[in-house]
């Protein structure tokens, strides 16, 4: 592999033993996360005096997440998952019959089901159709109406791997009609450079490309949006002081994104997230993207040459870490690959491989060679 990335693979035992190409479902834990969890346990044994350590780690993780997103720490909070982050937004906006939401057909169900529920309250939901696995700006803008309240899209599609690079340009036009733009960065953050720019709301899980644990979602709230939010899922952690003398009559929410956090955060998860964010900061997400791009390009071209119907667009502007193709029996393909020591994701009529910093040319070659054999065997049956 390109110089500078070779030393990292040996830090991930599973990636050494087998060909692991399933980060888009479950990332391998970054070096230091196990030690971080042990540190949490050690400080948990101190009882309440350990809380000082917990909150210090929370602030460290907040600062690292803000650095990753090129924003201020005050704009970051931690919620239990990407799905919870999205629901926090939904329940912080006032909805009326006739309001309009725009999503796309490339969205993970977490970014579909909650909006469909709003239809019961008279909210209109438009699903923008992708073209050749990617979204077109003109199609999203064409769906805007004076009643559009929210546009909620993925930066990288879990399904096709298409990177929606035009989000920054899109946001400006969305604001012109007074709408909010929300971005699911789960399949991008930690693998592709992500800057919040003029996006209003952005969220991501931490157990995929960020290589941390479950139970922590990173959430960004822009200062512009914060002025208009009315959070309803709030609690004692949402306020700067929950023991004020007038607490039975009045409350004041914390400034910034912290108003969305109702109770104690997942401190063990934050210990692990701090470790993984430190690791990614040392390696550099931009460097990861640049070094792995040739592998992803080669992977897509090699799979496409097998005559399958590709879901991942060919244009390099849409490239991320994911390469997918359609197949009528994806579980069968996945099982055959696993017998050869290769782990990918299969389901929903497709097979998906995902490439992170613990992958190299040997992994790509092994996957491509094995996949070619499996597909040929199927055709001979």
SSE order: HHEHHEHEHEHEHEEEHHHEHEEEH
Instruction: Write down the CATH class of the largest domain.
Output: Alpha Beta
Specify the overall morphology.
globular
Q: Which class do the helix and strand fractions yield?
A: alpha/beta
Distance between the termini: 37 Å
Count of beta strands: 12
Helix content: 25-40%
Percentage of residues in DSSP E strands: 5-15%
Mean pLDDT: 95
CATH 2nd-level architecture of the largest domain: 3-Layer(aba) Sandwich
- Biggest β-sheet description: 7 strands, mixed
Tally of helical runs = 13
CATH superfamily of the largest domain: Type I PLP-dependent aspartate aminotransferase-like (Major domain)
Radius of gyration: 22 Å
Low-confidence segments = none
Structural domain count: 2
CATH topology heading of the largest domain: Aspartate Aminotransferase, domain 2
Characterization of the model:
The protein is α/β, with parallel strands linked by helices. The protein has 2 domains: 6-21 and 284-380, Aspartate Aminotransferase, domain 1 (Alpha-Beta Complex); 33-281, Aspartate Aminotransferase, domain 2 (3-Layer(aba) Sandwich). Helices cover 37% and strands 14% of the residues. The chain has 13 helices and 12 strands. It has helices spanning 6-9, 13-17, 33-44, 51-69, 82-90, 113-118, 137-142, 167-176, 223-226, 267-283, 285-304, 330-339, 361-380; strands spanning 19-20, 76-79, 100-104, 124-128, 148-154, 180-184, 201-205, 217-221, 322-326, 342-343, 345-347, 350-354. The strands form 3 sheets. It has a 7-stranded mixed β-sheet, sandwiched between helices. The longest helix is centred in the last third of the chain and has 20 residues, at 285-304. The mean pLDDT is 95.
């Amino acid at each position: 592999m390109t110089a500078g990335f070779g030393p990292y693979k040996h830090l991930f035992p599973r990636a050494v033993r087998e060909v692991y190409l399933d980060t888009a479902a479950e990332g391998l834990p970054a070096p230091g996360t196990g030690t971080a969890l042990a540190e949490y346990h050690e400080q948990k044994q101190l009882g309440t005096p350990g809380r000082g350590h917990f909150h210090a780690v929370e602030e460290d993780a907040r600062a690292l997440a803000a650095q990753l997103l090129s924003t201020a720490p005050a704009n970051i909070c931690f919620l239990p998952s990407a799905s919870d982050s999205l629901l926090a937004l939904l329940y912080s906006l006032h909805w009326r019959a006739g309001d309009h939401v725009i999503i796309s057909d490339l969205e993970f169900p977490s970014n579909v089901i909650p909006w469909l529920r709003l239809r019961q309250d008279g909210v209109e939901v438009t699903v923008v159709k992708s073209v050749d696995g990617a979204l077109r700006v003109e199609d999203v803008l064409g769906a805007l109406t004076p009643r559009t309240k929210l546009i909620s899209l993925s930066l990288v599609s879990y399904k096709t791997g298409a990177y929606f690079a035009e989000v920054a340009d899109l946001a400006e036009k969305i604001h012109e009609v007074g709408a909010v733009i929300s971005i699911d960065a789960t399949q991008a953050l930690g693998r592709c450079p992500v800057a919040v720019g003029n996006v209003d709301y952005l969220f991501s899980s931490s157990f995929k490309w960020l290589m941390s644990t479950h139970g922590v979602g990173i959430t960004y709230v822009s200062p512009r949006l914060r002025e208009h939010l009315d959070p309803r899922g709030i609690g004692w952690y949402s306020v700067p002081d929950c023991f004020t003398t007038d607490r039975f009559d009045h409350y004041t929410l914390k400034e910034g994104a912290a108003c969305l956090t109702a109770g104690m955060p997942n401190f063990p998860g934050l210990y692990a997230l701090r470790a993984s964010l430190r690791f990614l900061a040392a390696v550099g997400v931009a460097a990861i993207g640049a070094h792995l791009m040739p592998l992803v390009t080669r992977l897509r071209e090699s799979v496409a040459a097998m005559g399958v119907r590709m879901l991942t667009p060919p244009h390099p502007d849409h490239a991320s870490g994911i390469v997918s193709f359609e197949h009528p029996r994806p579980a069968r393909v996945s099982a055959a690959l696993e017998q050869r020591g290769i782990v990918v994701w299969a389901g929903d009529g497709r097979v998906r491989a995902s490439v992170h910093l613990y992958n190299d040319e040997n992994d790509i070659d092994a996957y491509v060679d094995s996949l070619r054999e499996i597909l040929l065997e199927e055709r001979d049956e």
